[in-house]
Structures are given as C-alpha cells and as structure tokens.
C-alpha cells in the first residue's frame, strides 16, 4: 500500500488538497448556475428529495440531506418565502410538520436537471467516457472510505 507523509510544504501536492479545491470550484460553479434559477446551493438537493415524494416530516429532511435541523429550518423558511414549498401540520399528530412542494416547486424539475447537466458537462469537459466512469468509481470509493 502506498503511503505518503506530508510536510507543511508538500500538502498542496496531496490528493486531499486537490479534492478540497475541486469541491470548492464545483460548488462555486453550481452556485453561479443555480442563481440563474433563483436558487441557493443546497436548495436543489432539498427539491430533489421532495420530487421523489413530498409530504415528508420536516424532521426527516435533515437526516435525508445530511444537514443539521437548524440548517433545514433555515432552508425551508427561505424556500417557503419564495413560494417553492409549504409546511402543513400533520392531521394525525399536531407535533409533526410535513413539507409539500407548491406548483412553483414542482415546476423547477426540468430547470434544475438542466443546471446539473450543464455542471456535469463543464466539470468533465475534457474527460473521455471511460475516464468519467473511472472517476465516478474512484469518487464512490473515496466517499465510502470517508463515511
């Protein structure tokens, strides 16, 4: 197994360092594209989750998205104000708030898909099909290692 010990000067040569910069650049480009649709980073992920089935309890969204309940609440507040979703009290349990998409929220599916397709093409522009498959496989392995 290949192991490398990094010094302060050689950190910038590491895969981890490069991965951090790739993530930052990807998020920045995603933010730029999402802004054209009036969305903030992360909101497309919340929409994607609700497109798979809305009416889920607000408390489940945080876990599904891997963010804190406070972050979820802030996102939902902002998106409700924008008219993308609404919260409704569960008729069987008054303590539960369920999240539903509005017609405006549903209408963004094609727009968000187009943004993600564009981001994918920008990100992988100079890679062959085989390189894209390999990169995806390697990133899935890195993700599994970190989880």
Question: How is the secondary structure organized here?
Answer:
Blueprint: H1 15-35, H2 43-51, E1 56-57, H3 58-65, H4 69-81, E2 85-89, E3 97-101, H5 103-107, H6 109-123, H7 129-146
Helix pairs in contact: 1-6, 3-4
Structure characteristics:
147 residues; mainly alpha; globular; 3 strands; single chain; 7 helices; three-stranded antiparallel beta sheet; Arc Repressor Mutant, subunit A
Short description, anyone?
With 147 residues, the chain is mostly helical. The chain is 61% helix and 8% strand. The protein has a single domain, classed as Arc Repressor Mutant, subunit A (Orthogonal Bundle), CATH 1.10.10.
Please estimate the helix content: 55-70%
What do the pLDDT scores average to?
Answer: 92
- The N- and C-terminal alpha carbons lie at a distance of 21 Å
Structural class: mainly alpha
